[in-house]
Write a structure and sequence with these properties.
mainly alpha
C-alpha cells in the first residue's frame, strides 16, 4: 500500500527517498554538464574570466588579442565539462552523510530546493577539496593552463600594468561546482513538481506522502 493515501513513510524511508532523489538529480545534472558545451553553451553557467582578470580581458581585446582570451575561456569550460564526468560519485558519497532527521525536515520544507541547499551548506568545503584536483587534472588535459598562462604572460608584459595571476584551478573549481549545484536545484524542483520525474518506487512513495502534508 505504499502508494496509497494512507501510507506514512518511516524515517528510514524518508532518508532513502530523499537520497534517491538527490542521486538522480546529481547524476542527471552531471551528465548534462559533461556533454560538449554543457557549460560553454549555457549562458547561465558559462565560465568567464575571473573577476580580478576582467581588466586583463578588456585590455587584451582592445589590443586585438581577443582570440587569446576566447581560447582561454573555451578551455576553462572544456575543463569543467570533462571534470563533470567524475563529479557524481564525489557528490553521492557526500549524500550518504545526511541524517534521517535532516531528510524529514527537508522533505516537509516549503523550499523546493532545500535538499540542494542542505547539501551545499554541509558539504561544499569537502567537495571543493576533493573536486579541485579533478579540475586541475582536467584543465591540464585540455591545455587550459597553457592558454591561461599565455593570457597572463602577454598582459603582464604590457608596460605599467598591475600584474595579476589569479588561481585558475580554484576559480574554475568554484564555478564548476556552482554550476553543478544549479543543475541539481533544477532537478530537485522537477522531482517535487512533476510526478513523472520520480523515477524510483521509494521516491514516488515518499514525495507523494510529502505532497499530502
Amino acid at each position: 500500500t505504499g502508494t496509497s493515501s494512507t501510507y506514512t513513510p518511516s524515517i528510514l524511508d524518508m532518508g532513502n527517498g530523499l537520497k534517491s532523489a538527490l542521486n538522480v538529480g546529481i547524476t542527471n545534472g552531471a551528465n548534462r554538464l559533461s556533454q560538449s558545451d554543457g557549460y560553454f553553451g549555457n549562458s547561465l553557467l558559462k565560465i568567464m574570466m575571473p573577476p580580478e582578470a576582467q581588466q586583463v580581458e578588456s585590455t587584451l581585446r582592445s589590443m586585438g588579442m581577443g582570440k587569446l582570451v576566447d581560447d582561454a575561456i573555451l578551455s576553462f569550460n572544456r575543463g569543467a565539462e570533462k571534470a563533470a564526468k567524475e563529479a557524481a560519485p564525489i557528490f553521492i558519497n557526500s549524500i550518504k552523510q545526511m541524517t534521517f532527521n535532516d531528510a524529514k525536515e527537508i522533505l516537509l520544507s516549503n523550499n523546493k530546493t532545500s535538499a540542494t541547499a542542505f547539501l551545499k551548506r554541509t558539504s561544499y568545503a569537502s567537495l571543493e577539496n576533493v573536486f579541485s584536483p579533478v579540475i586541475d587534472k582536467s584543465l591540464r588535459s585540455v591545455n587550459a593552463t597553457k592558454y591561461w598562462g599565455d593570457v597572463i604572460n602577454t598582459y603582464n608584459q604590457i608596460p605599467l600594468v598591475k600584474k595579476v595571476n589569479p588561481d585558475l584551478t580554484a576559480y574554475v573549481t568554484e564555478q564548476a561546482l556552482n554550476g553543478l549545484f544549479k543543475m541539481v536545484e533544477k532537478e530537485e524542483i522537477k522531482i517535487r513538481d512533476n510526478l513523472s520525474a520520480r523515477t524510483t518506487d521509494i521516491m514516488q512513495k515518499v514525495f507523494g506522502w510529502a505532497d499530502r502534508q
